[in-house]
Design brief:
seven-stranded antiparallel β-sheet; alpha+beta; about 425 residues; 10 helices
C-alpha cells in the first residue's frame, strides 16, 4: 500500500481540530498508531483558557540525538466557514469524500493527511538508518504557537526539519513572514440606539497570502456602510485571521456616528499604507509584494474589534510597520489590542537538506523543484533555532486551502509517502 490506510484518513478528517478548539481527540487517535509503529511517544500539554492543547512527539532514538531529522506537521485547521459551500462533501467539511483521484475535506491538504503519510512511511522504512522524530503541533493556524512551545523543551534540538504544508511536492526553501494585529474601539455611543436594520454581504474565501484570489466580504460591507452613511451597532465577519472572509453581517442605524466617521478615516489610511507596501517587490515570491488585509470584524462587550494581517517580505522592517500602525490607530481613537509577528525564512537552495531531499525525490521518480512560498510556516521557527528547514507536502495550496472544497490527490499522497520513506532510509553519517 503506497498511501496510509483510508480508515486512518477518514478518521483524522472526521475529527474537528479547528485551531481554537482542543486537539486532544486527534492526538489520542494518533498515539496508538505511533506506538504500533515502534516509536517512543511523548506529549507536551499546554492549557489555554481552560482548554487542553498538545504537541505530539514520537521519536526513533532520542530527541537529543545528533543530526536529528524532524518531520513536522500541524494538526490544527482553520474553521470550516460556511458549511453550505462545501458542495463536494454534502455540506460537512469533516466528511471525507472521494471523487475519482481526489479526497475532499477540511485538512486533506492543509495538512492533517501529511502526518499520516509520515507515520506510514516510518513503518515502511524500517529498519531506520537515521535518528528522526515525527512531530504534530497545535495552534499553527493562529500564529505558530505550538511549535514555539515545543522549543521550550531543552531536549528538543533538531538539526534538520521537513515541515509539512501543501507544496505540490515542491521543495520550499524560503517564505514570507506573517504579521497579525487587532485594533479595538469603544461602541458605547450607540448601544441605546433604536431603529436598526440588518444587512449581510457575501464574498469569496481565500488564503490571506493570496488575497487577490478572494473577495473580502468585510471590505464590501464597510464600503457599503461608508457610502450609505450608516452607523455600526454590531458587526460579525470572518472566522480566521489568515483567511479572506466570505461573509459579513451587521446591525446598523441610518445615521453616521463618530465611530464610523473615525473608522472610515482609519481604513482609508491603512489602505494607503497597503498601497505603499505593494511598491516593494521581491520577484522570488508570488505575489511579489505585500498588502494589509482586514480578515475579521466583530463586536463584543461594547467594543469593535478588527483583525488584520500582512505577509512580510524578508527585506521588510516589521518594527517600523508596527510603529506606523500604532500611530494610525491612536490618531483615530483605536487601540492596538494585540500584535504578533512570525518571521520570514530566508533559506538556501544549496543546503544539505535540499540536497538530501533532491536525491530522495529522484529515487521516487519526481523532479526536484525548489521554490519560495508566500505564506508563513513553522519552518521559520526551526530555522531560528539553528536547524536547516524546508517546507514540503502533498497537495496544492494556492486557490485550494482556507476555502470550501479543499482537496488533495491520492497520487500526490502516495508520492509524498514514498519521499518520506527515502528520507528515513538515507544514512545519517555523511548526510546529516
Amino acid at each position: 500500500m503506497r498511501t496510509p490506510p483510508m480508515e486512518w484518513i477518514e478518521k483524522v478528517i472526521g475529527i474537528n481540530s479547528v485551531t481554537h478548539q482542543s486537539n486532544a481527540e486527534i492526538v489520542q487517535f494518533l498515539i496508538p498508531l505511533l506506538k504500533e509503529t515502534g516509536l517512543k511517544v511523548e506529549t507536551q500539554k499546554v492549557m489555554e483558557q481552560g482548554k487542553e492543547f498538545y504537541n505530539l512527539i514520537a521519536y526513533s532514538h532520542s530527541l537529543s540525538a545528533p543530526n536529528l531529522l524532524v518531520l513536522n506537521t500541524h494538526l490544527d485547521t482553520v474553521s470550516g466557514g460556511d458549511f453550505s459551500s462545501w458542495t463536494k462533501t454534502q455540506g460537512n467539511p469533516f466528511r471525507l469524500t472521494k471523487v475519482k483521484n481526489r479526497l475532499y475535506g477540511l485538512g486533506t491538504a492543509d495538512v492533517k493527511i501529511d502526518f499520516l503519510c509520515k507515520i506510514w512511511a516510518a513503518r515502511v522504512a524500517k529498519p531506520w538508518n537515521r535518528p528522526f522524530a515525527l512531530v504534530g503541533t497545535y495552534g499553527e493556524e493562529r500564529g505558530l504557537v505550538g511549535i514555539q512551545q515545543l522549543f521550550k523543551l531543552k531536549s528538543f534540538k533538531p538539526r534538520f526539519a521537513l515541515v509539512g504544508e501543501p507544496s505540490n511536492l515542491e521543495l520550499i526553501y524560503a517564505h514570507k513572514g506573517h504579521l497579525i494585529f487587532t485594533l479595538e474601539a469603544s461602541l458605547n455611543e450607540i448601544q441605546n440606539s433604536s431603529g436598526t436594520l440588518s444587512k449581510k454581504w457575501k464574498g469569496k474565501s481565500a488564503h490571506s497570502s493570496t488575497p487577490h484570489l478572494g473577495e473580502n466580504a468585510i471590505q464590501k460591507a464597510l464600503n457599503d456602510i461608508f457610502k450609505r452613511g450608516f452607523g455600526i451597532v454590531s458587526i460579525s465577519g470572518g472566522t480566521d485571521s489568515n483567511r479572506i472572509p466570505d461573509q459579513c453581517e451587521a446591525q446598523l442605524i441610518k445615521a453616521k456616528t463618530p465611530l464610523t466617521h473615525n473608522l472610515f478615516k482609519l481604513i482609508t489610511e491603512i489602505e494607503s499604507l497597503s498601497k505603499e507596501l505593494k511598491k516593494l517587490k521581491d520577484n522570488r515570491f508570488s505575489p511579489s509584494s505585500s498588502q494589509i488585509s482586514l480578515n475579521m470584524a466583530r463586536t463584543a462587550n461594547n467594543k469593535l474589534y478588527l483583525t488584520f494581517d500582512c505577509r512580510l517580505l524578508p527585506s521588510m522592517n516589521p518594527t517600523k510597520l508596527q510603529q506606523k500602525l500604532e500611530t494610525l490607530s491612536q490618531k483615530f481613537g483605536f487601540r492596538m489590542e494585540s500584535f504578533s509577528i512570525d518571521c520570514p525564512m530566508k533559506g538556501s537552495r544549496n543546503s544539505a537538506l535540499i540536497k538530501q531531499a533532491t536525491q530522495s525525490l529522484k529515487r521516487c521518480g519526481v523532479k526536484a523543484v525548489t521554490k519560495t512560498k508566500a505564506s508563513s510556516t513553522e519552518a521559520a521557527i526551526y530555522s531560528q533555532h539553528g536547524a536547516e528547514a524546508i517546507v514540503f507536502g502533498p497537495g496544492i495550496s494556492i486557490g485550494n486551502v482556507h476555502r470550501p472544497n479543499e482537496y488533495n490527490s491520492l497520487d500526490q499522497i502516495a508520492k509524498a509517502t514514498d519521499f518520506y520513506v527515502q528520507m528515513l532510509r538515507m544514512p545519517s553519517r555523511g548526510h546529516a
